[in-house]
Write a structure and sequence with these properties.
- This protein has 12 helices and 21 strands.
- The protein has 423 residues and is α/β, with parallel strands linked by helices.
- Strands 4, 14, 15, 16, 17, 18, 19, 20 and 21 form a 9-stranded mixed beta sheet that branches. Strands 5-6-7-8-9-11-12-13 form an 8-stranded parallel β-barrel, surrounded by 6 helices. A 3-stranded antiparallel beta sheet has the order 1-2-3.
- The model has no long low-confidence stretch (mean pLDDT 96).
- The structure holds pyridoxal-5'-phosphate.
- Pyridoxal-5'-phosphate binds next to α10.
Length: 423
Amino acid sequence: MNHFQYIDGALHAEDVPLADIAAAVGTPFYCYSTATLERHYKVFSEAFADHDALICYAVKANANLAVIRTLADLGAGADVVSEGELRKALAGGVPADRIVFSGVGKTHAEIAYALDCGVMQLNVESIPELEALSAIAAGKGITASIGIRINPDVDARTHEKISTGKAENKFGIAAAAAPEAFARAAALPGVRPVSVAVHIGSQLTDLEPFRAAFTTLAALVGELRAQGHEIERVDLGGGLGIPYREESLPLPIDYAAVVKGAVGNLGCQLVFEPGRMLVGNAGVLVSRVIYVKEGEAKRFVIVDAAMNDLMRPAMYDAWHDIKPLNAPPQDAPVAPVDVVGPACETSDTFARQRNLTPIREGDLLAILTAGAYGAVMASTYNVRLLTPEILVRGSKWSIVRARPSYEDLLRQDSLATWQDRSI
Ligand SMILES: *Cc1c(COP(=O)(O)O)cnc(C)c1O
């Protein structure tokens, strides 16, 4: 469910015609819908209304300050994986005591900064990290609440590049090694192990891997308690998949039933880290057609967005629906086209042999479900400007990240001291 709909033949974000934004800010641009963000947060949080639950939005999915603020205003915490994300979450209005710091490679400086901020919990992913955290916290004379992330060795049945819970993945500590890690943590100064964490991957379209992971986690909590550890929280990660091609997928309420079945009676606070589920369908990438090129074997629709703006198709072979901003007539014929960007890479392809209604030069297209892992992964590859971001609320819209200028971009580099600046 999202708030990007045709009204009188024009694709709108809530009450705003996307073409109006294109006319004002140019293309390409990302556009996010407040009502969609709010709806997704509410659907997720209401599924756990009968539990002590904290929803820590995974900032890496979309780190725009206005998006973070929208979710923070609803009571969301944050899951962050770097000092930059932590700073953004705080700047977006998320209180430190609702922030979980995750990630397999936190630097010592990042750990020190997170401790100074007073984050709710740091999730530790290795014994060397545990030892470093203990030393840093003890040096500051504080005791940090920590979770230990386990790797439950389950196949998330998602794309291999976003699968994180198999034994061969770099994430977490093997479940079998967790009791030893907790014993080690309990013996160290500066840390208090209060939580077991798990996150098995992203875009899961099947609930069974969740059930398997959460069942492993529940058994482990029992074992750890028997050894005298006080486990107050379990952190169940994110990963719930969203429909990219209007397929029907498990709903938050179905996911909640699996969660409650596996860990509902542990008496623990439940922490969730949804990212994609909250923001994916709340964003589109709008782009203009530069040329329609009749190739030898195919017709190419060349648009002004490229893989540097939205990496998912190139990186994960991801499918994104594409809709023209002007609704085609009901009886418009469809024919296969490749929708490609201008970057000098064959992987700069948004859709291959997609059946679309006729498209002409100058047309505006929306690439849907681009709110998660879109703008955050953008780069300036091919020395292209970063894409601006717009947030809509009802009939209002606001630029929440401006398009940089070429002067901004050129200023980032400088000549070496020995190079002649006079040419
Ligand atoms: C990426 C990530 C998430 C969010 O995953 P989604 O699939 O976007 O819900 C949550 N927790 C951790 C530790 C992550 O790395």
